[in-house]
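Input/output pair, single chain:
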Amino acid sequence: MGLPTAIGFSFQMFYDLVDLYWIGKISTSAIAGVGIFSTIFWVVEALNEIIGVSSISLISQSYGKRNFERTNSVIEQTIAFKFLVAIVGSVILLLFLKPIFCLFTNEGNVLELGLKYGYLRIFFLPIMFSSFSINTAFRSIGDSKTPMIIMIISSILNIILDPILMFDKVFIFRGFNLGVSGAAIATIISQVFSFVVGFYILFSGVEGVKPSISELFKLDFGIDKKLITIGLPNGFEVLMRNLSGVMILYFVSKYGKEVISAYTIGNRIFGFVFMPLFGILMGSSAIVGQSLGAEKVERAEKVSKIAGWLTTIVSLIFVCIIVIFSEEFINLFSNDYEVIRNGVLFLRYSVWGLLFLAYGLGISIAFTGSGYNIPFLFMSLISRWIVQIPLMYFVVMVFKLPVIWLWISFVFGDFMEYIVSIYFFNKGKWKVVRV
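Output:
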């Protein structure tokens, strides 16, 4: 369950790295602009998370009970309801993107490039959310190979389109010379492809499940209420986590656009590390949900612990690689000395927190599979808002320390998230919660 999902997500993150590679060929300002937009953009991802986490519990437990009619209904409502929520999110972003952007930079070129990239991505947010829903539906019924194949093909498509749309010449061929707009359009095309193909396969029938297109236009209050309430703690957690990302970027921005660019590149590299982890987590959480739906609590607990150790081992491998080759990694995306220097420091110091975070996230699939999502809220609030952000405030605003101390704060935040996740897992309330 986890391996195909990990492979699919790794390919998806790989095209994010390729995006950044080509964007780096434009300028340091382009990297900074896209990095600022991405941080703001993912605040709205909390809306996706609320419904997405709820749908994992509802679909996997319904499927575990072999209630295919209920499974179909939840899938239909997840796609339709998330599409509507994404429209709301798009409108909010379109209205407030520019004023929020100006909080992080007063450099005209950074602002212009970031907005040019961002407005295109925002317009297709509903398609992006719906594509996530379809892939989640496949995994929740035990089919992780289909979304893997779709994600691989869409990623390759994006990688091919990037240089063609961004530059005036690609090898011996003539390109469209659209700059950062070309990178956004390439991503949009790949997301539309992923949505259309996944939608067709899912609604044609798979694993005993066959949703109905006509039912997409009918909202079911009972299911929609659960889609909001079950994942609300988790969605609020993601909102607070992503808002903490905005605060972190604010502190980073005090050191200039080169440090913003270094942080953006480092984050994308870490994102590539997290994709195999999230693959394991998403595949395992579906197994936990199906196990709890069949009242196999011991099996669910065993799966959670195995996931914790798997994510830790995978993280350790990546940590060693990143520490050894950090300079080579940053150098792929920028030849600016200051960007490279700060990026290397970010990777080498903040990376150690991943070992703690990986295990904490691994065992937390017990919360996702059961629908008991309150622990995620505490994990985010305590680790980011009570530990890391106050540390950053003192580093930047009070003592005005070098940026390296900003990077070290990530380790403290990740360690605290590990402590909180273990506390709630051992407390065991997730074992008796059902949706």
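The two ends are 22 Å apart (CA to CA). The chain has one domain: 2-431.
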